[in-house]
Structure of dTDP-4-dehydrorhamnose reductase:
Amino acid sequence: MKTFITGGKGQLGKEVQKQLEEYNLFVTDYDTVDIANFKQVEKVLYEEKPDIVINCGAYTAVDKCEEDIEQAYKINALGPRNLAIICEELGAKIVHISTDYVFGDIFLGNTLQERIENAKLLLPLKEDYPCQPINIYGKSKLLGEQLVRQFSSKYFILRTAWLYGDGNNFVNTMLNLAKSNDTIKVVADQFGSPTYTKDLVLAIKNLIPTKFYGTYNATCEGICSWYEFACKIFELENIDIKVVPITTEEFSRPARRPQYSCLDNFMLKLHNLNSFRHWDVALKDYIIDERI
Ligand SMILES: NC(=O)c1ccc[n+]([C@@H]2O[C@H](COP(=O)([O-])OP(=O)(O)OC[C@H]3O[C@@H](n4cnc5c(N)ncnc54)[C@H](OP(=O)(O)O)[C@@H]3O)[C@@H](O)[C@H]2O)c1
């Protein structure tokens, strides 16, 4: 079974290579195959004739997408479309990774306390919750999903969130900041589910032998705020640092972020394929077992 990987040097791409060794991998990244370039995609896929394509390539810099709009859409929408068209011609399955940011904003209240209390009352969003992205990254990823569905009959779309693994991510940012600060301010009114690439690749591994095509939420279990996530990282690393909870308004960024984007892996549960661990168990695995 030949498996073609795009974005192989990214966080997810690296984990795919670790866990899917037996899948006869052909690994590419931006420098070898630009998924936004249809001719390149067509040529290499016709040469390699894979049975499965796993698209780990994406424009993931959420704030930069706001000013680099055309490039964001080229990579996040046309890229998966190009792959889906050729996969369909070859009869190959396509695994495409999407995001919690395809969903919109949910109003949680005006004060930090209200937002924290209301977030705990909400139920995580199932796959059929209406999409209404509020930033360019989310909009470009949503169009990517729609185009994959339009052109492929054998697709698995996995929506993940707050991803960390081998690469640039929130965990590493916090640990780097802790080297030169004794106090860190972290947003406490945005809620999601931190997800370890190891858990996401296991979900991909569980789905690809099946014919259960469709769209899946794919995040670790449980929810937290970025503030709670940061506190847990420092606790597990035994770092003594003051973490100050702040609001979204106090941490202004170019791209708006949804306040609540916690996902329910409902479709995976229906198939008895939900192998995701609780986010703090997965984080402990990453910090204690992987980073030491
Ligand atoms: N990171 C998160 O928190 C998060 C959250 C939700 C969903 N996701 C989704 O999860 C997937 C994997 O994310 P990740 O964290 O592994 O991303 P990542 O570490 O940023 O890796 C993305 C990879 O794609 C490559 N790439 C960029 N443009 C490309 C192009 N035109 N053609 C081929 N490759 C290209 C990048 O290369 P360069 O580095 O050279 O640009 C990089 O190696 C993405 O679909 C992302 O949207 C991520």
